[in-house]
């Protein structure tokens, strides 16, 4: 009797151990949900839809985009963190989810380091400092001199509190010792409209949202927050070139799932994501957005996210920024 009980227990344990692997062999056998923690039509949404369509043929299943905006991405992130880790719920994650919110909020409904399976990075796009063409500063040197001569009198726009654009300017202020007042908007479009219209003189703007108006001259681009000059804006100097070192500012995106996803499923999704970067439609979308693809492993994506959290945490604390 004891031997039979032991064998039965071992068989049950073996079945439990093998179940995720058996599931992984058949993956995917149903529609995959991809959560985007922003409204439909924005840059993150467009990138997700483009990648989902590119990955669909190889996966053999549709990927449906589920927009869950709100609470600075916390609503969508919490939903995914608490989902079943079977590979059928994924999400687009960016600076907010992975590097900012743990410092902006006193309490989060998820732990960015422990509550997710990291699948792979998507890409990054730099932020550029832009001004209205009528603004008296014609280049970065004149802008910095104006800001220092007029502390508190210069305003800047952003798509909202806690956005990469907001924090890019806060890092800039921290590095340059300037006092520029934040005017938050509800989204990039109205912020850009007021900078173009002259209601607010300046902002940090990502290439994904602002490249067309940068190239058209509707705003003047003073400097870009990347390590090297952008091939899309070859005449624009980097912040390091104009005398502001250690101020690389960019937005990044990647794909997450709930913690505990079977390793074979994570590996499969990572491979499909990396393969999608060679799809012509994806390449065109990335080029249109000025986005640099970041193919790599799940571990490399997680390392990027944690490095960015360590880089931005001190800035957020030093500038006293809170969202609750």
Descriptive report:
By secondary structure, this protein is α/β, with parallel strands linked by helices. The chain has two domains: 2-125 and 251-318, D-Maltodextrin-Binding Protein, domain 2, CATH 3.40.190.150; 126-224, Periplasmic binding protein-like II (D-Maltodextrin-Binding Protein, domain 2, 3-Layer(aba) Sandwich). Helix content is 45%, strand content 19%. The chain is built from eleven helices and ten strands. The protein has helices at 2-25, 43-59, 74-81, 95-104, 140-149, 164-176, 188-197, 207-216, 263-276, 280-289, 298-318; strands at 32-36, 63-67, 89-94, 116-131, 155-158, 181-184, 202-206, 220-224, 250-258, 292-293. Strands 1, 2, 3, 4, 5, 6, 7, 8, 9 and 10 form a ten-stranded mixed sheet that branches. α2 (43-59) links the parallel β1 (32-36) and β2 (63-67). The protein starts with a helix and ends in a 6-residue tail after the last helix. The model has no long low-confidence stretch (mean pLDDT 91).
> What is the overall silhouette?
globular
Number of strands: 10
What is the arithmetic mean of pLDDT? 91
> At CATH's second level, what is the architecture of the largest domain?
3-Layer(aba) Sandwich
The major pleated sheet works out as: 10 strands, mixed
The secondary structure category is alpha/beta
Q: Quick one: CATH superfamily of the largest domain? A: Bordetella uptake gene, domain 1
Q: Helix proportion of residues, in percent?
A: 40-55%
């Amino acid at each position: 009797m004891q031997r039979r009980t032991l064998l039965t227990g071992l068989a049950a344990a073996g079945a439990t151990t093998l179940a995720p692997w058996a599931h992984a062999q058949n993956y995917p056998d149903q529609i995959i949900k991809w959560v985007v923690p922003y409204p439909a039509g924005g840059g993150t949404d467009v990138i997700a839809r483009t990648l989902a369509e590119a990955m669909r043929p190889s996966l053999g299943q549709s990927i449906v985009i589920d927009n869950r905006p709100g609470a600075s991405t916390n609503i969508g992130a919490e939903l995914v963190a608490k989902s079943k880790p079977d590979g059928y719920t994924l999400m687009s994650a960016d600076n907010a989810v992975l590097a900012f919110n743990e410092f902006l909020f006193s309490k989060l409904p998820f732990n960015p380091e422990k509550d997710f399976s990291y699948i792979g990075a998507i890409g990054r796009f730099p932020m550029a400092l832009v001004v209205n063409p009528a603004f008296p500063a014609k280049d970065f040197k004149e802008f910095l001199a104006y800001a220092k001569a007029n502390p508190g009198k210069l305003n800047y726009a952003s798509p909202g509190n806690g956005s990469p654009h907001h924090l890019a300017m806060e890092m800039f202020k921290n590095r340059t010792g300037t006092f520029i007042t934040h005017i938050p908007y509800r989204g990039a479009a109205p912020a850009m409209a007021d900078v173009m219209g002259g209601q607010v003189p300046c902002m940090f703007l990502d290439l994904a949202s602002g490249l067309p108006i940068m190239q058209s001259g509707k705003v003047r681009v003073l400097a870009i927050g990347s390590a090297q000059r952008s091939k899309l804006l070859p005449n624009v100097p980097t912040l390091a070139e104009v005398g502001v070192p250690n101020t690389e500012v960019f937005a990044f995106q990647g794909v997450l799932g709930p913690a505990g996803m079977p390793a074979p499923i994570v590996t499969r999704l990572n491979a499909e994501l990396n393969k999608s970067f060679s799809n012509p439609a994806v390449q065109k979308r990335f080029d249109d957005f000025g986005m640099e693809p970041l193919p790599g492993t799940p571990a490399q994506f997680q390392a990027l996210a944690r490095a960015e959290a360590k880089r931005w945490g001190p800035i957020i604390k030093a500038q006293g920024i809170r969202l609750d």
